[in-house]
Amino acid sequence: MYATERHELIERLLTDDGRVSVVDLARRFGVTTETVRRDLAQLEGAGSLRRVHGGAVKSDRGSTVEPTLTERLGRAADAKAAIAARAITALGREFRGSVYLDAGTTTAAVAERLDASGARIEAVTHALSIAQTLSGSQEIDLTVIGGRVRGVTGAAVGAATVDAISGLRPDVAFVGTNGVSADFGLSTPDPDEASVKRQIVRSARRVIVLADAEKLGADRLVGFAALADIDVLVTDASPDPLLAAALEDADVEVWIA
């Protein structure tokens, strides 16, 4: 196989899976790992990918890359809807209690389904779009946590926000993430967002993380929880063997939507 053919296939695999492994590529192409690394170096130089330990990821998956809320609304919409529908079954129609909704487009999809869930809920959020969704409900009592609002996510952050959440003990928290990996756990690009998410995880009695397939195996700049800190991961694809083993070791339930 010529180098150009390998490069085209690597780019196709990145488009489909978001990441590639040096060892897997060497086995697939029947070449040495050194040859694969040279291929990856050339593609990185062309801006087609970004090399990471053991392989490469798409160039738009840098540790600090954070699309805006508007940009994220159009991504993986069907997957997020399926994840939200699966996640909300954790409540059940007889649920009576408190729910914390983290900022994010998948958690927003959960919020859109709360009114029809039949549950009687005391909802809490620091996300403006989610607060707007829930504000007109007759079945949901809503508390909004304030703070400095980040334009990228439309969510409150900062010391006051973290302090307010620390005084809560919600029964269930639906938490979004930008990355879920075996060695780094849950992560997000922004330190302020990470501080808020970290406190949500600490405060909640049960933590349900929502992550579409693009987030699996990804690391972002700031970690906010270990896998052992969460109870359930709801996603739309099976984690790779390494992540699946780490989740099992951490006693995390994995629900595939």
CATH architecture of the largest domain: 3-Layer(aba) Sandwich
Distance between the termini: 38 Å
Whole-number mean pLDDT: 90
Briefly note the structural class of the backbone: alpha/beta
CATH class of the largest domain: Alpha Beta
* Helical amount: 25-40%
SS field, number of helical segments: 10
Strand content: 15-25%
Number of domains: 2
Radius of gyration of CA atoms, rounded to a whole number: 20 Å
Summarize the biggest pleated sheet: 7 strands, parallel
By DSSP, the count of extended strands is 15
- CATH topology title of the largest domain: Rossmann fold
Strand order of the largest sheet: 6-5-4-9-12-14-15
SSE series: HEHHEEHHEHEHEEEHEEEHEEEHE
Shape: elongated
- Enumerate the spans where pLDDT stays under 50 for 5 or more consecutive residues: none
Q: What descriptive keywords fit this protein?
A:
257 residues, alpha/beta, Arc Repressor Mutant, subunit A, Rossmann fold, 2 domains, seven-stranded parallel sheet, three-stranded antiparallel sheet, 39% helix
